[in-house]
Structures are given as structure tokens and as C-alpha cells.
Amino acid sequence: MFLLQWQSFKTTDLKTDACVASSGPVPAHIRHALNMVHPEVIAKYYGCGLVVPECMEACQVLDLGSGSGRDCYMLSKLVGEKGNVTGIDMTEKLLEVARTYTDYHTQAFGYKAPNIRFVQGYLEALNEAGIEGSAYDICISNGAVNLCPDKKPVLQEAYRVLKEGGELYFSDVYSSGRLTEEIRNSNVLWGECLSGALWWEDLMQLAEEVGFSPPRFVSGAAIKVFNKEMQDILGDFKFLSATYRLFKVPRGAGKPREVVYQGGITGMEESFSLDSQYTFKVNEVVEVDGDVAEILTRSRFSDKFTMLPPGGPSQTCGASPKVRSTV
Fold first, then answer.
1. CA atoms within 13 A on the CB side of 61
2. Residues 301, 288: Cα–Cα separation, whole Å
3. pLDDT, tens digit, 9 for 90 and up, residues 3-53
4. Residue 72: which of 91, 48, 99 has the closest Cα?
5. DSSP states of 91-145 as a string?
6. Exposed/middle/buried for residue 71 (C-beta within 10 Å: 0-12, 13-18, 19+)
7. d(CA 172, CA 178)
8. Rg of the Cα atoms in the chain
9. What region holds the Methyltransferase domain (predicted)?
10. Which residues are CB-neighbours of 84 under 8 A, at least 6 positions away?
11. pLDDT tens digits for 77-111?
């Protein structure tokens, strides 16, 4: 019932800005890939904004809640012919739209064969949909985790299917506390992407229980509620639309290190922002905490960084990065 209501929504129906895309700048290579996606795929896509991690060439990517396939086809272009994209969604009608345009995009991208597939299934049970374990470099999700009442199985399945060093990069809505039953059971608030919001502290706890390294906060924006009736139901709860990145690397195993970004990431040739705390400029030495050192050593970013010999001054997690130039 909720799904049908959600698919009939228009942006003008919304009473909050939780499901309205950010107006921030889109890098040129991403904009180019998005412009190549077939108009019908875009028209029937119900996601919000863009969720595009960096350094995706030749990666194996899984889109959790792929809908009509807009993000999948964009990612298909970004990973290149040597990469692969799988989209999973529970709604067969949207998957039919996505599958209709596989050949169209294969030809538009100049590929000899498709590098994309779409499967029907649930995010809490990827194994039942035939999604293999330790098979993907990146899992992305654009607001779909919000629609799953039980978030832990979703994170567990994402962790299972990721390779060692892999990443879950996802945007969703978070709340300032655990929501009441009244809020969680409201159909209207589900449609506004608020009833399924996870308390941000629960995300930290769930990530630890599943095995991910501590979530890295990338960006976020406070959500505005325009409707007085909704404001009364929500009370003092505040909501944030935020992007986090979680890595499948050992938690607490790393030590503070000094690193140097060598460049080479498409669209980030001069500087690369891992999250809201760390931005790396080419040839600049940055001291990172142990968790980030593990990420940069074990993930797909490893060949973009030089790890300087250990033994320098230590840094506690959460402190401002120390930098110096190597030039």
C-alpha cells in the first residue's frame, strides 16, 4: 500500500524538503554520464539527489534500491566497460523499465556487451536474490534503507556482499532520537521519508555490531517541515538528510599515520575529500587517525596515497588534521 502511494507522489505533494534533491554542483564527468541516461528511466526514478562515490573505474557496484535504474546506468558509464553494476529492487514494474533500456545504454556508451544487470529482491535478504558474498567493491543506496523497518539486516547483507576493503556509500534521513510509534506508523510521514529515519547514534551502534569501521560523515543538511500538523506530530524531533560512508576494514586496528595524496581520482585531480573532516590536496602531507589510515591502506584508494613511515607525532580520532606540503 505504501509503495503504491510513494510511486504516485510528485515533488509538489511533499510537505518537507527531505525528498528534494540538493542544488549543489555536480562534477562534469557525473553530469555527462547522467545526461546519457534515457529520459524514460529518469522520469520514472523516485530517488532523491545523487549518490556517487569517487574512484569507481573498473569497480563492481551494487545499487541497493535501484528503482528504474537511473543511478545504475549513470554508474555503468562511470565504472567503464571493465566494471560492472548490479541493481536490486523489490518492485518488478520499475525493474521492467530498467531492463528495457539495457541495450540502449550499452550502445550509447560504446560497450561491446552490457556491464549491468537488474534483479528483484529485498535489501534485507540479498542472498535470496542470488547476490554473492564478497563480490562488490562498492554498495550504494539513495534513500532506500529508510524504507526498510529493520535496518540491521540491511547493513549485515551489505557487509556480507562487500569485498574486504569495500565500501557502503549511502544517503538517507536521520533523526535526533528514536522515533515514537505514532511517527513510525504514519503513512504520510513514511511518504515524506521521516517515519523510517534512523537515530544517528543507532547507525554508529549498528555499524559496530555488523563489523564496519566507524561511519564517516560526508555531508548533510537539516530537513525543513512546512506543514503545521506534521510539526505537531514530530514535536521536538529534528531530521537530517546525510551521506555516510562505511568501510569493510578492521575496526580499531590502525594507528595514526602521515599520508600524501598522489592525485589520479577522476574529478578530484587536485584535491580529494574523504569526508567532512579530511580533505587531501596533492603532494600535501596530512596526519590521519588510525581508522582513516586503515581505510586508505585497504580500500580502492590505496594506490592513490603514499603512506609515510610510521613514527611521527600521534593524533587522536576527531582532531583537526595536521598538514604540510612536500613541495
1. 36
2. 14
3. 333 344 444 445 666 655 454 678 999 999 999 999 999 999 877 678 999
4. 99
5. -HHHHHHHHHTHHHHHHHTT-SS--EEEEE--GGGGGGGT--TT-EEEEEEES-G
6. buried
7. 15
8. 20
9. 58-211
10. 60, 61, 115, 116
11. 999 999 999 999 999 999 999 999 999 999 999 99
